[in-house]
């Protein structure tokens, strides 16, 4: 099987992400109260950075990724019986309808060809009153330095299918039947739009802040 960009970079992924450690620490603080005592599914979990940092708050986390090499790295130092890693396709998940209280998909919707289909599958496996947490790099808001970084990432094989601004990303979620109950732009290598959503027709509050 031909290795993907993510398979090839799995062993260095954690080192690459260290530059955004402060943003991720803040994101963990936002996530922990949402997942507390909940059954959680994480898609595009990579090496498990998020899952390992929040699993102590959750009841159980199923953390998945399409890359076998990423999941192999994630399993290597998993110390929690509440955390299970597996290779899954986010477009065709093996879970029953309405299985999870929370679904997390972090920095992934912009790098898949049909994010609408991924969001539809998330809707299927999420409980009616469940929460979708979908932090995503919103590259249309890049400054000059961010555009240079994105250019070199493209040269080494990183591919993104969507380039949203923070607002156009939130618009996409709304168009796909989600109510944005919270959003916050985190300062990272690229603007990182943290967002919590619920299925539409559930009353929520919204906000947009910068850190």
State the CATH topology: Rossmann fold
Give the DSSP E fraction (strand runs of 2 or more residues).
15-25%
Cα(first) to Cα(last) distance is 42 Å
Report the strand count: 9
Q: Structural class from helices and strands?
A: alpha/beta
Rough outline = globular
The level 1 CATH classification is: Alpha Beta
Mean pLDDT: 86
Tell me the helix content.
25-40%
Number of domains: 1
CATH architecture label name? 3-Layer(aba) Sandwich
What integer value in Å does the Rg equal?
Answer: 16 Å
CATH superfamily: Vaccinia Virus protein VP39
Give the low-pLDDT segments: 202-211
The main β sheet shows up as: 9 strands, mixed
Number of helices: 8
Helix-strand topology string: HHHEHEHEEHEEHHEEE
Topology:
Elements (H helix, E strand, L loop, with lengths): L4 H5 L3 H5 L3 H15 L3 E5 L5 H6 L5 E6 L2 H9 L6 E5 L12 E6 L9 H11 E8 L2 E2 L6 H12 L10 H10 L2 E9 L5 E8 L8 E3 L1
Parallel strand pairs: 1-2, 1-4, 2-3, 4-5, 7-9
Antiparallel strand pairs: 5-8, 6-8, 7-8
Key words describing this protein structure:
211 residues; alpha/beta; Rossmann fold; nine-stranded mixed beta sheet; 8 helices; 25% strand
Account of the protein in words:
The chain has one domain (5-210): Rossmann fold (3-Layer(aba) Sandwich). 35% of the residues lie in helices and 25% in strands. It has helices at residues 5-9, 13-17, 21-35, 49-54, 68-76, 115-125, 144-155, 166-175, and strands at residues 39-43, 60-65, 83-87, 100-105, 126-133, 136-137, 178-186, 192-199, 208-210. Strands 1, 2, 3, 4, 5, 6, 7, 8 and 9 form a nine-stranded mixed sheet that branches. The N and C termini lie far apart (42 Å). The model is unreliable at 202-211 (pLDDT under 50).
